[in-house]
Design a protein that fits this description.
Layout (H helix, E strand, L loop, with lengths): L4 H23 L2 H4 L1 E4 L7 E2 L5 E2 L2 H7 L1 H10 L4 H4 L4 H14 L4 E8 H24 L9 H8 L6 H11 L7 H5 L5 E5 L8 H8 L4 E2 L2 E3 L4 E4 L12 E3 L5 E7 L35 E2 L8 E7 L7 E13 L2 E9 L2 E3 L6 E2 H12 L7 E11 L6 E10 L10 H14 L2 H8 L7 E5 L3 H11 L16 H8 L2 E6 L6
Parallel strand pairs: 1-4, 4-5, 5-6, 18-19
Antiparallel strand pairs: 2-3, 7-8, 8-9, 9-14, 10-11, 10-12, 12-13, 13-14, 15-16, 17-18, 19-20
């Protein structure tokens, strides 16, 4: 998408609104207090057929001179590590820089919570090697990126005392609160935790200890939308106050299931993987979007934007609920993506439906000593009737003596999910038009492998979101090759 001077100016204003009045109010002047350990990953530019340069929004930010000029003062990661094209080398070096400057770190995070969890797991796997590098002052040979090696050579020297301290922390019996232990001056963890990212908050709460999870901004590649004025809110209670001059915002009323307008008469097509721009003409021509000042509390809307960069009534694909006002400006809660992600027959299961069902089901495994580390889904139509398949990666809670799954409880999880799905799904289940829901438990590390696959295909690690539904045959092979147990719903939902 085009980045104009106006777009760049709006982005700068948007970020200053957050850092000055909001973050300072709750956490003080972060930039004066120390540095941010944020995991950032640039992607290489591509050239369009007409010769124009194209890059991701985050990469554009990292290439901006104002970012580069302040980088060393504000962040622990150098530009060389951010632009390292090997994500494992980049992540290793960013962790190493963060550990070498541990006493200066005041915030910890990335764009999405999934990246933060991945970084902590990566640290767990490489902690001995990292400590060895710090102790000897020598970088591992497998780090071959010249930029990373040169940048690290400027600050690395043998530090056995620091290495022993980090090793003792990492060797403790539990990794609960490990972020605060390794970076004792950290004030909060910054990342997006809403929508599909909510599946990772339980893990990050464990690793973060008492550190609050702060979802600062609501934005996308197309435009910036809103600011979280209460950053200490729990992830489930985050509301974003829209900044009216970032774009021209309009809101298309939808029912709570995200499929129909309030009139109940007009059915909108689901969004595909590629969003679309539309003049919002409907079948009966009488359903219009409302502007920002005319939204109603409690109503669900699909967000549309018109920007100075050329988007006209662009469907962002997000479903929001109006929850209140800050002065006269509406506040919204992110509900889900606007798309039907699972469908076998005439059933339509949205991302919000699926998230609700997973939340209900995972509550059954926590008392057994397990937490859900990741999930995704797909509609299996290889046999008739087809059925929903949910992939779960489970993590044993530290201190739990139970290492085995109880088949009865897992089957009850399947049933609990079916019970939580919508009326149409249950009707088709009773008619045997849809077979019993299946949960496939996968090996630990499977969702890391899924992320690696998408990154290898060009996705940015810092912007990667685990898909709620798998479309790629290659990705499905990765999941199926790591399945260790399968469970089915034992009965038809009421």
């Amino acid at each position: 998408m085009p980045v104009t001077a106006d777009v760049a100016e709006k982005r700068e204003i948007f970020c200053s609104l957050l850092s000055d009045p909001v973050i300072k109010k709750f956490f003080g002047d972060i930039d004066q207090a120390g540095k941010r350990l944020e995991f950032m990953f640039a992607k290489p530019e591509i050239e369009t057929p007409c010769g124009l340069k194209a890059r991701s929004v985050s990469t554009s930010i990292y290439m901006d001179n104002s970012f580069r000029n302040t980088l060393s003062k504000i962040y622990t990661s150098p530009i060389e590590a951010i632009f390292c094209l090997d994500t494992n080398q980049s992540l290793y070096c960013q962790l190493l820089f963060g550990l070498l400057q541990r006493d200066e770190v005041v915030t910890f995070g990335s764009i999405f919570v999934s990246t933060v969890v991945r970084a902590i797991k990566f640290l767990e796997d490489h902690r001995k090697e990292l400590c060895c590098n710090i102790k000897t002052g020598q970088l591992s040979n497998w780090i071959t990126d010249s930029g990373c090696r040169i940048a690290l050579s400027l600050i690395m020297k043998p530090n056995p005392e620091l290495a022993d301290l980090i090793e003792n922390i990492c060797c403790s019996k539990s990794w609960e609160g490990i972020v605060k232990k390794l970076w004792p001056n950290a004030k909060f963890i910054k990342c997006v935790t809403t929508g599909v990212m909510s599946q990772y908050t339980e893990q990050l709460d464990f690793y973060g200890g008492e550190l609050p999870l702060v979802a600062c901004l609501y934005s996308s590649s197309e435009a910036n939308f809103g600011v979280n004025l209460q950053p200490l809110s729990k992830p489930s209670d985050v509301f974003y106050t829209f900044v009216p001059n970032m774009a021209y915002f309009e809101f298309l009323p939808v029912k709570k299931d995200g499929h129909q307008t309030m009139s109940g008469e007009v059915q909108f097509n689901s969004l595909s993987d590629h969003h679309e721009s539309t003049e919002m003409k409907t079948e009966n021509q009488n359903i219009d979007p409302v502007d920002l000042v005319n939204v109603k509390l409690g109503q669900h809307y699909e967000l549309l934007i018109t920007t100075s960069a050329g988007f006209y009534r662009y469907k962002v694909g997000d479903i929001l609920m109006a929850t209140g006002f800050h002065n006269n400006t509406p506040k919204f809660q992110f509900v889900a993506r606007q798309n039907v992600i699972l469908s076998i027959d005439a059933d339509k299961t949205s991302e919000a439906d699926l998230l609700k069902a997973v939340k209900e089901a995972k509550s059954l495994i926590y008392p057994l000593g397990f937490i859900l580390a990741g999930f995704t889904s797909y509609g299996d139509t290889s046999s008739a009737p087809g059925h929903y398949v949910i992939f779960w990666e489970l993590k044993v809670i530290e201190g739990s003596n139970n290492k085995e799954l109880d088949p009865k409880i897992m089957m009850e999880c399947c049933y609990k999910m079916e019970e939580s799905l919508n009326y149409i799904y249950k009707v088709y289940r009773k008619q045997n038009a849809i077979a019993a829901l299946e949960i496939r438990v996968v090996k630990p590390g499977t969702f890391d492998a899924l992320m690696d696959y998408h990154v290898s295909k060009g996705a940015s690690m810092s912007q990667y979101k685990t898909p709620s539904c798998i479309k790629s045959k290659e990705a499905l092979k990765i999941l199926d090759s790591r399945v260790i147990e399968k469970f089915f719903s034992p009965k038809t939902p009421a």
